[in-house]
Write a structure and sequence with these properties.
277 residues, mainly alpha, two-stranded antiparallel ribbon, 7 helices, 2 strands
Amino acid sequence: MGSFRGHALPGTYFFLMGLWWSIKYILKYVSKKQKRTCYPSSKISFQRVELVEGIIIVLMALSGIGGEQFLNGGPSLILYKEGQWNQLNGWHHCTMYFFFGLLGVAKIVCSTINSIPGSLVKLMMSNALFVEGFIFYNHTHGREMLDIFVHQMLVLVVMLTGLVTFLEFLTRSNVLLELLSTSLFLLQGTWFWQIGFVLYPLSGSPKWDLNDHGNRMFLTICFCWHYALAYMIIGVNCIFVTWGWTLSRNSARICCSFPGDPKEDYSLFLFQKSSDA
């Protein structure tokens, strides 16, 4: 991650995951509120979504590991070279990606093997986040003040996300906890981008004074703005998902109603399991 692109890549991944999960959790909640019959095909659809999610997360992790190892003079899988450790920062990042890759594997396994509890995914997600937080906590030894500060803020977000995700593991389908965790994923994604702009300004942009206390004060405010943006994104998603769901349900009622037949909503609840009926 010793470049702007190295911070923009994981930032994009975390932002996209948070954006998708916010849409998914809201849609799942709205569908459950209808309290209608769940058909067997809905459970199959849910498993397919989880399977696709798992595959995408694994591909993200592999691309991140590949980029860290082989691009921009990476360690190329050599941990010890010429009597000393070889680019340990890059290995830190690869370890983070590896644990999120395990999360993707857990999603794939849970969506294909019914005997494995689905809560394993939440446990693996919290494990990946705690590992990420531990890595970045020990990532900034000997660096300048502002560099350490922006990474401390990242560690705070990661640890909070891991804690909330572990609470999700202990509870079941709590939409407030789910949306809280997605807001923190969105915050983590945008903050990675902010770190990239601070430490590696784009060409033509003024460089940040990494020892200026005023910059630290501004980034404290900026961090709060990032979190406000995350909540605004979730609010917009909630409005559009609810509106789209209502619109599609009304359309299904019109298309599936025939004279003399009992009126029934044949909408497919994509994210509702049979046990929730």
